[in-house]
Amino acid sequence: MNVSRRLLAGLISLPKPTSKLTGILSKNNRYLNTTASLQCQANFTRFAIPTILKRFIEPRYVDITGYVRNGEVLKMIEEVGQVAVRRYWMGDISPGLTTKFGILAGIDKLNFRQHLLPEDYVHLHARVNYVSQHSLEVQVDVYAEDLSTHERRLANSVSIWYVAAEVMKDRRVRVMQLPPLYYECAEDEDKGHERYQLQREKRSMDYQLYLDYKFPARLYEDWNTNIDYKNVPKHCVQSSQMSLDRMVQTSDCSALGFATASPIIELMDTTAVMAASKHCDNACKTLCIDSINFHHPVRIDSLLTAVAKISSTSKHSLNLEIAAIAEDLSTGQREFVANGFFKLLSADEEGNPLPVPPLIDVGELEQLRL
Question: Of all helices (H) and strands (E), which one includes residue 224?
Answer without folding.
Answer: none
